[in-house]
Amino acid sequence: MKRDFIHITDFTGEEIHQTLNLAAKVKRSIKNGERFLPLRYKTMAMIFAKPSTRTRVSFETGMEQLGGHAIFLGPNDIGIGKREAIKDIARVISRYDDIIMARLFDHEHIKELAEYSSVPVINGLTDFNHPCQIMADIMTIQEHRGDLNDLKVAFIGDGNNVAHSWINLAARLSMHFAIATPEGFEPDTEVVKKAREEGLSKIDVVRDPEEAVEDADIIYTDVWASMGEEDQAAEKKKKFQNYQISKELLKRAKDNYYVMHCLPAHRGEEITDKVMESKRSIVFDEAENRMHAQKAIILKLMEIEY
Ligand code: CP
Ligand code: NVA
């Protein structure tokens, strides 16, 4: 049975730890100048219905570093759901390539792509989830803190795709996850309910950013208007005014807190320029780790030793 990585919860807690260890190993060897090419002659099809910097460059570079090749397919190439049926695309690409990564709007579309592909499918972001981001995030936290014990993560802003994948992670690894959102922008209640039912983590959905940040180790944010919400940007900007990560808000956090952002950031909106540039900001380590975490996810799904 081939495996996919559509949701963080597609992996068990143990598999998440194994993947993080593998990611650290791959990162170390690349930094040491070693080059193993376990993906020689293997190809990845990358389907993008939305723009990207990190996802595209990190997957393409990561494939190359492991000896493989990635094929970029932009919005005008495939036309997911428009030019031909998703199940046809899935079966055709499965005949050419060894693995598929897709960034789509509709989450149902990536599930359908995975259902009909005979090769593994990785979710490179949908409107509902962004699991690769959160694997890189937790890897970065582990590197900076040394462990994941007694972790409190405060997410300030929109209960969006990134927030949902964080909550999925809280269903697999123990943490205190607190999210503060304006009214009407809370994370999906089913996602929260399911994560709570796992009984591993404390999950708070609150209104007040200060309450969420209280004694947090990690203060995390994302853009207020996600890709595809451009028409709501002005309206959201008004509603999210009190949800900016500023020096003032960070006074509530633990002394040795870190600030994270999946990027792209809108400085002056969800985060101040000062905070982005501060010593406690680990956003670029986080961005780098997209590449290492994803290489580990690819190797795991393809069942290839490193
Ligand atoms: N964080 C992230 O997924 O970045 P891109 O949208 O640039 O890929
Ligand atoms: N929530 C953002 C994440 C970008 C990486 C979006 O979907 O645009």
The ordered H/E elements are: HEHEHEHEHEHEHEHEHHEHH
Please identify, by name, the CATH architecture of the largest domain: 3-Layer(aba) Sandwich
* Amino- and carboxy-terminal Cα gap: 21 Å
The tally of structural domains comes to: 2
Q: What composes the largest sheet?
A: 5 strands, parallel
Measured as a percent range, the helix fraction is: 40-55%
Number of β-strand runs? 9
The strand order across the widest sheet is 7-6-5-8-9
Which outline best applies? Answer: globular
Q: How much is the average pLDDT?
A: 98
Structural features, described:
- With 306 residues, the protein is of the alpha/beta class.
- It folds into two domains: 8-130 and 287-302, Rossmann fold (3-Layer(aba) Sandwich), CATH 3.40.50.1370; 134-284, Aspartate/ornithine carbamoyltransferase (Rossmann fold, 3-Layer(aba) Sandwich), CATH 3.40.50.1370.
- It has helices spanning 13-31, 54-65, 86-96, 107-116, 131-145, 161-170, 189-198, 209-213, 233-239, 247-250, 273-277, 283-302, and strands at 43-48, 69-73, 99-103, 121-123, 152-156, 176-180, 202-206, 218-221, 258-261.
- The chain has a five-stranded parallel β-sheet. It has a four-stranded parallel β-sheet with strand order 2-1-3-4, sandwiched between helices.
- Helix 4 links the parallel strand 3 (99-103) and strand 4 (121-123).
- Helix 5 crosses helix 12 (283-302).
- The two termini are 21 Å apart.
- The structure holds phosphoric acid mono(formamide)ester and norvaline.
- Residues 125, 160-162, 222-223, 226-227, 262 line the site of norvaline.
